[in-house]
TrEMBL record:
The keyword ATP-binding applies. Keywords: ATP-binding, Glutathione biosynthesis, Ligase, Magnesium, Manganese, Metal-binding, Nucleotide-binding. PROSITE patterns: ATP_GRASP (PS50975). It comes from the Bacteria. One of its GO terms (cellular component) is cytoplasm. Belongs to the prokaryotic GSH synthase family. InterPro entries: ATP-grasp (IPR011761), ATP_grasp_subdomain_1 (IPR013815), Glut_synth_pro (IPR006284), GSHS_ATP-bd (IPR004218), GSHS_N (IPR004215), PreATP-grasp_dom_sf (IPR016185). Pathway: Sulfur metabolism; glutathione biosynthesis; glutathione from L-cysteine and L-glutamate: step 2/2. This is Glutathione synthetase. HAMAP family: GSH_S (MF_00162). Its cofactor is Mg(2+); Mn(2+). Signal peptide: none annotated. GO terms for molecular function: ATP binding; glutathione synthase activity; metal ion binding.
Length: 311
């Protein structure tokens, strides 16, 4: 059966570096019709969610876009929400609009994208997280700093390692806190610094179960961020017993909330983030293990869609 598929995503994606493009390619291989629109092209007309969308294909290593047309999103079979944070009011508004849809399967469920933000969701699994404080109150952050002496500060709703900072040796955090709150307008995540920073894994989860894992190795001296976008490199890895226990602990929550595709960050056995907005890692797993994870993912997406149709 040919499906109608739509991707809500950023326009500045790079073919060969973006998971969304892999999903588009695989949809194309399966004969599905694929549309593209950005969050700014989403609308609700009266009570009807629509988008100014265009057909998209992958040709000769590039995305090719057709003309813009009004797309009634209730007529789409599967919708992917794949734009990157920031998790701001524009992002939140798009989830409210998409949440009104009844017919499409949406990857991931917009209500729970909104409710289950990536740095807050791990707090539900307190047995697996490092000592954590989330606030913008300077006095509480200062007390946490005094207690642990070596901590990491990061904005709650940013991504990709932006403005992640380690503070230790009695460095005054007052200016850091003030600047971060002013820049992002949200609370700060403070966590006890984990020394074994080269034991950092990205684990990909499909319908709550692990389908791929790799380690992110830091190359730059003095760097603490393991994000690939700041220069870390992927290396093969295996799931430890602790990793498997984390996956088992969060599986039900992910499947219950319709968070079909996710990526978790595990640092030295501690659950740091549960990425559900636009998880990456498929390209790295494919290269490291000679796999085509996008095929496995699409098998799951189609199965979920047909099950929804028959429910």
């Amino acid at each position: 059966m040919t499906l109608v598929v739509a991707f809500q995503m950023d326009k500045d994606v790079v073919v060969g570096k973006d998971v969304s493009v892999k999903f588009i390619q695989e949809a194309q291989i399966r004969g599905h019709t694929v549309f593209f629109f950005t969050p700014s092209q989403l609308a609700i007309k009266g009570t009807v969610p629509i988008a100014n969308a265009c057909l998209v294909t992958v040709e000769s290593g590039a995305l090719k876009f057709g003309g813009v047309q009004e797309l009634f999103l209730e007529n789409v079979n599967i919708i992917f929400i794949r734009q990157n944070p920031p998790f701001d009011m524009r992002y939140i508004t798009s989830t409210y609009i998409l949440e009104k849809l009844k017919n499409p399967l949406i990857v991931n469920n917009p209500k729970f994208l909104r409710d289950c933000t990536e740095k807050l969701l791990p707090l539900l699994f307190h047995d697996f997280i490092p000592s954590t404080l989330i606030t913008e109150d300077y006095s509480m952050l200062q007390d946490f700093y005094r207690e642990h002496e070596d901590i990491v500060l990061k904005p709650l709703y940013s991504y990709g390692g932006n403005d992640v900072m380690r503070v230790k040796d009695g460095i005054d955090i007052k200016v850091i806190v003030a600047l971060m709150v002013e820049k992002y307008g949200c609370p700060i995540v403070a966590q006890k610094f984990i020394k074994n920073i080269n034991d950092d894994k990205r684990i990909l989860l499909l319908d709550g179960k692990p389908i791929g894992v790799f380690k992110r190795k830091i190359l730059s001296a003095g760097e603490i961020r393991t994000n690939l976008r700041v220069g870390s490199v992927p290396e093969p890895a295996e799931l430890s017993d602790r990793d498997r226990n984390i996956c088992l602990a969060i599986e039900h929550k992910l499947t219950e909330k319709g968070l079909i595709f996710a990526g978790i960050d595990v640092l030295d056995g501690y659950l740091i983030e549960i990425n559900v907005t636009s998880p990456c890692g498929i390209l790295e797993v494919n290269r490291l293990y000679n796999m085509c994870l996008e095929k496995k993912c699409w098998d799951c997406f189609e199965e979920k869609f047909y099950a929804k149709c028959n429910s």
